[in-house]
Amino acid sequence: MKNREQPDRTDTHAMPEISIEEDCGNSPRKQFLSDFYVAFVERNEEAIRSMLTDDVRLAIIGEETLDGSQSVVDSMDLFLDGISEITVNNIITHGDMAAVTGVITADSGDTHAFCEVFEFEGHTKGAKIESIDSYVVEMG
């Protein structure tokens, strides 16, 4: 598992630690998603926007749906505030679909398992994310 060092930040947002399970390195789509999670944790708006279609849909199952890349970018603080660590255990890809599983740890110590299902705008290496279905379950 590789841990990403946190860059120096001058803003007031604490950045969660992120751990991503290493893979064989033969899948550009797996690397793309790994980079997506790192950019999200780093609150790198430009990188996130470049990975999403303009009309991306993020469905937080049982909660709400966000439409458009700007809505997803604007939600980063909401999702990350109070989070101390994100561990990505698996990135599974096939064609224009992918799934990512892992664990989110809050500052309070509470943990939640997550699974996010991604759909890309096509099969090419440069295809952007057009939808994300996010499932989050509190762990006991």
Structural class computed from helices and strand pairing: alpha+beta
Per DSSP, the total helix count is: 4
Order of helices and strands: EEHHEEHHEEEE
Radius of gyration: 14 Å
Distance between the termini: 24 Å
Quaternary organization:
single chain
The unreliable regions are 1-11
**Form type:** globular
Tell me the number of strands: 8
The helicity comes to 10-25%
Name the beta content range: 35-45%
Mean pLDDT: 89
Largest sheet: 8 strands, mixed
Q: Give the strand order, joined by hyphens, for the main sheet.
A: 1-2-5-6-7-8-3-4
How is this structure best described in words?
The protein has 140 residues and is an alpha+beta fold. The chain is 23% helix and 44% strand. An 8-stranded mixed β-sheet has the order 1-2-5-6-7-8-3-4.
Short summary:
By secondary structure, the chain is an alpha+beta fold. The protein contains 4 helices and 8 strands; from the N terminus they run ββααββααββββ. Strands 1-2-5-6-7-8-3-4 form an 8-stranded mixed sheet.
Give the tags:
single chain; 140 residues; alpha+beta; 8-stranded mixed β-sheet; disordered N terminus
List the helices and strands and how they pair.
Elements: E1 2-4, E2 17-20, H1 28-41, H2 45-51, E3 52-60, E4 64-67, H3 69-74, H4 76-80, E5 83-94, E6 97-106, E7 111-120, E8 129-138
Parallel strand pairs: 2-5, 3-8
Antiparallel strand pairs: 1-2, 3-4, 5-6, 6-7, 7-8
Helix pairs in contact: 1-2
